[in-house]
Amino acid sequence: MSRLLLVDDEPAVLYALKELARSNGHEPVTARSGAEALERLEGVDAVVTDYAMPEMDGLQLLQAIHERDASLPVVVLTAQGSERVAVRAMKAGAYEYVTKPFDIDEMTLVLDRALETRALRVQNRRLAVEKALGRSIVGDAPAMQRLLDAVARVAPKDVTVLVRGETGTGKELIASLLHAQSRRASGPLVRFNCAAIPAELAEAELFGHARGAFTGAVQARQGFFAQADGGTLVLDEVGELPLPLQAKLLRALQEGEIQPVGAGRVERVDVRLVAATHRDLAEEARAGRFREDLYYRLAVVELVVPPLREHREDIPALAKEFARRFGARFGVDDVRLSPPLLERLAAAEWPGNVRQLENQVARLVALSNGGELGPEALEAGAAPAAREPGVEAPPEGALTLHEHLDAVERNIIAKTLAATGGNQSETARRLGVSRGALIDRLKKYGFA
């Protein structure tokens, strides 16, 4: 179902457009002014707007829409005899113009063509990005389409972006998309995991160091900021940065300058920063655990990646893509997931989100000999699949003692991870283990 944004200050015209949209199987979204239309633009596939409106006319609205998304078709309604206005609209980038009062058949045909054009533009854009990334992008659910549309609008603008989402949702893919669709796509894409490096070494890793700056620094080393010069630097788990280093990161963003550890000089860098985190940094800032000024500097644009439970309809397509990818990687020919198996995967709970699903499919493919895999493949793996609603445990004798213990431990971790909203530090605290030990278990059970 396509979403149509209908804009007119005349209630009768708006009603007629809304009924026409519904009769053709589309979802209408209405607005009585240009300003209201811009507030309701998210997720629409085409726009129909009147030309003659107070405060913001149709051409001004058209220009504002195309500043946000140049691929969105806009149909402009004009009064009879307003050929000059119609020409101006077409020159400004309108998809088509229709005179009022409009003919129902003509409007239906124009809308059908506009929606087909939109679909082709979106598909071409996706193919271009997939070519740049070297991988397919799966995400046809409305929640993912809104996110991908937002990425396409933001990527060409050289602004700092904060990507937020639960563990395993695909934040790294969104960061890659932002780089691939940016003007820096030909430059380097450099990643730095803020949680993987001890605090005392993180500054030297980020900004580099001079020879002899500390014990073991036998030669000068270029930091990640310098490596990303002219391209994009992705800071994974930015919420884990210690407060003193946050101040230095803020300076690097504000001034475009870095100072390697132990060096008496500053270096200019031209870097677009994309930060990713599973934490709510606004809440972290209010609690004093994250610098508020750095949060605002990072979140010029904030993108939220939905958890898998909010776009379950993508699970079959994701599973098929993972099976294709791992079949090629593992040399397993013609591996297919049967409809019953896809139904089981779609019904299962995935607290580890897309990454957990990916690891589960990798396990299925690795243990198969190719051909079509049925639901029984879930019980054949070395690790149990994600728990389905109402399924507590495998029958006795189906698993070895070690597998039973792994299943119990995995279930406890999954429940605790879900209860903390994916917060690894809090999950580790509740389970009474170190964060490092938890991360090892998350990797073991396919959560990370």
How does the SSE layout of this entry go?
Blueprint: E1 3-7, H1 11-23, E2 27-31, H2 34-39, E3 46-50, H3 58-68, E4 74-79, H4 83-91, E5 96-100, H5 104-133, H6 142-154, E6 161-164, H7 171-180, E7 189-193, H8 199-207, H9 224-227, E8 232-236, H10 243-255, E9 257-258, E10 267-268, E11 272-277, H11 281-286, H12 292-298, E12 301-304, H13 315-330, E13 335-337, H14 339-347, H15 353-366, E14 371-373, H16 377-380, H17 401-419, H18 424-431, H19 435-444
Parallel strand pairs: 1-2, 1-3, 3-4, 4-5, 6-11, 6-12, 7-8, 8-11, 13-14
Antiparallel strand pairs: 9-10
Helix pairs in contact: 13-15, 17-18, 18-19
CATH-assigned fold name of the largest domain:
Rossmann fold
Oligomer: single chain
- CATH C-level of the largest domain: Alpha Beta
Instruction: Provide the β-strand percentage band.
Output: 5-15%
Whole-number radius of gyration? 26 Å
Largest sheet: 5 strands, parallel
DSSP helical segment count: 19
Strand pairing plus helix content: what structural class?
alpha/beta
Silhouette? globular
CATH superfamily of the largest domain: P-loop containing nucleotide triphosphate hydrolases
**Poorly predicted sequence stretches spanning 5 or more consecutive residues:** 382-399
Our measurement of the CA-to-CA distance between the termini, rounded to an integer number of angstroms, reads: 35 Å
Count of the separate structural domains: 3
Q: What do the pLDDT scores average to? A: 86
Keywords: ATP-binding, DNA-binding, Nucleotide-binding, Phosphoprotein, Transcription, Transcription regulation
InterPro entries: AAA+_ATPase (IPR003593), AAA_lid_NorR (IPR058031), CheY-like_superfamily (IPR011006), Homeodomain-like_sf (IPR009057), HTH_Fis (IPR002197), P-loop_NTPase (IPR027417), Sig_transdc_resp-reg_receiver (IPR001789), Sigma_54_int (IPR002078)
GO molecular function, one term: ATP binding
Protein name: Two component, sigma54 specific, transcriptional regulator, Fis family
